[in-house]
């Protein structure tokens, strides 16, 4: 039993004066490469990390969803099951209530729930704290209802919660990575085909480490910027007469861009097409056991996200630049952007120096100190 399990069980007992029926958890994720392509039918390459959202849960007969969070101490939040609908709940409770709502919409029947949450996935860091919570709740609802859901079904229900209930028009990558990842691999997810493949990923065997640098610049994807990027892609699809941007070929990119009416659309499309190509190249290198050669592709992804997709920020850019100067083989922002984290592939012997250099660079600029943590591929959602 992990410390997170012990804490959340204690929180459950203190809040509901009984033992939980079960404990369920799901991880955050970091995306190695393939950013802002999942809602265009693209290819993505995330992996789960060992930071997890953990839910202690019990079924009830009171027709209520009662929930409490260790991250937001206070009274238990209670919502009637019959009143669950998009817009009915806000704040952190919307992610929990929305996941229950989406599970019920998918036919997972419960008469009431008591839920206690604890999480080690940092909020606002671009590590999918919301997807981890959603997947853990969906798994808990199904488990208490005596139903077994496949990982991709857990992900689909969790994504619906975020899209339709919370109101963030995210693609399926985050929830799929949280639900379906396996330890020791990255998850090649073809979002158009809906298929996954586990690609072995062991940086340590090559003398490498993956660092996540949380800039501690918080971001909200519900504030409209994410939706505007998605709307741009949908507009380009309409103009180009294709089903999804995934249909566009790198070989035809120049002609495709010439058919678009303005520079912003051209840059958005160029990012998506070239990012899909970079994912393919990274997968080919990983399958050939050439992990030390993927660094330039990671850095090229960041440049594209910064210049073509406009989702970076000063803190992310400085973290990438300093990490590269300190010896990283490649670095890029990860997640939705507008803050959050970068990842850097670094020689393990240089990892401490890279982290120290970024911390020093932030201090020189008077910015809040970033948090540097090594990550490695972890298991997906599970009943603990």
TrEMBL record:
Q: Which Gene3D superfamilies does the record associate with it?
A: 3.30.230.10, GHMP kinase, C-terminal domain (3.30.70.890)
Return the EC number: 2.7.1.6
Which Pfam family is one of this chain's hits?
Answer: GHMP_kinases_N
- List the GO cellular component terms: cytosol
Residue span(s) of domain GHMP kinase C-terminal: 283-362
* Keyword list, A-Z: ATP-binding, Carbohydrate metabolism, Cytoplasm, Galactose metabolism, Kinase, Magnesium, Metal-binding, Nucleotide-binding, Transferase
Which InterPro entries does this one have? Galactokinase, Galactokinase_CS, GalKase_N, GHMP_kinase_C_dom, GHMP_kinase_C_sf, GHMP_kinase_N_dom, GHMP_knse_ATP-bd_CS, Mevalonate/galactokinase
Q: Which SUPFAM superfamilies does the record associate with it?
A: GHMP Kinase, C-terminal domain (SSF55060), Ribosomal protein S5 domain 2-like (SSF54211)
Domain of life, per lineage: Bacteria
Family, according to the entry, reads as follows: Belongs to the GHMP kinase family. GalK subfamily.
Which NCBIfam families does the UniProt record give?
A: gal_kin
Q: What is this protein called?
A: Galactokinase
């Amino acid at each position: 039993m992990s410390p997170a399990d012990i804490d959340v069980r204690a929180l459950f007992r203190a809040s509901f004066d009984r033992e939980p029926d079960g404990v369920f958890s799901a991880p955050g994720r970091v995306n190695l490469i393939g950013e802002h392509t999942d809602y265009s039918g693209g290819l993505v390459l995330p992996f789960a990390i060992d930071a997890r959202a953990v839910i202690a849960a019990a079924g009830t007969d009171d027709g209520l969803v009662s929930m409490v969070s260790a991250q937001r101490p206070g009274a238990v939040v209670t919502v009637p099951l019959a009143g669950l609908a998009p817009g009915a709940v806000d704040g952190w409770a919307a992610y929990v209530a929305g996941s229950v709502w989406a599970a019920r919409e998918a036919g997972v029947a419960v008469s009431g729930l008591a839920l206690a949450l604890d999480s080690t996935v940092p909020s606002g860091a671009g590590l999918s704290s919301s997807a981890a919570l959603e997947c853990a709740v969906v798994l808990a609802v199904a488990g208490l209802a005596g139903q077994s859901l496949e990982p991709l079904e857990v992900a689909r229900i969790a994504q619906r919660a975020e899209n339709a209930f919370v109101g963030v028009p995210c693609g399926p990558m985050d929830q799929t990575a949280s639900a379906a990842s396996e330890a020791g691999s990255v998850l090649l997810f073809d979002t158009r085909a809906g298929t996954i493949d586990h690609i072995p990923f062991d940086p340590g065997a090559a003398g490498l480490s993956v660092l996540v640098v949380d800039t501690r610049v918080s971001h909200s994807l519900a504030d409209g910027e994410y939706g505007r990027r998605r709307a741009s892609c949908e507009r380009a699809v309409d103009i180009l007469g294709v089903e999804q941007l995934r249909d566009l070929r790198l070989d035809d990119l120049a002609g495709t861009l010439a058919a678009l009416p303005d520079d912003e659309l051209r840059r958005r499309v160029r990012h998506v097409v070239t990012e899909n190509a970079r994912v393919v190249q990274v997968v080919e290198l990983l399958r050939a056991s050439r992990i030390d050669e993927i660094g330039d592709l990671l850095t090229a992804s960041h440049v594209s996200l910064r210049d073509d997709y406009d989702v970076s920020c000063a803190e992310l850019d400085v973290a990438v630049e300093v990490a590269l100067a300190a010896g990283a083989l490649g670095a890029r922002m990860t997640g939705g952007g507008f803050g959050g984290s970068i990842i850097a592939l670094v020689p393990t012997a240089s990892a401490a120096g890279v982290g120290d250099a970024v911390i020093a660079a932030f201090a020189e600029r008077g910015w809040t100190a970033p948090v540097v943590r090594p990550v490695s591929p972890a298991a997906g959602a599970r009943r603990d």
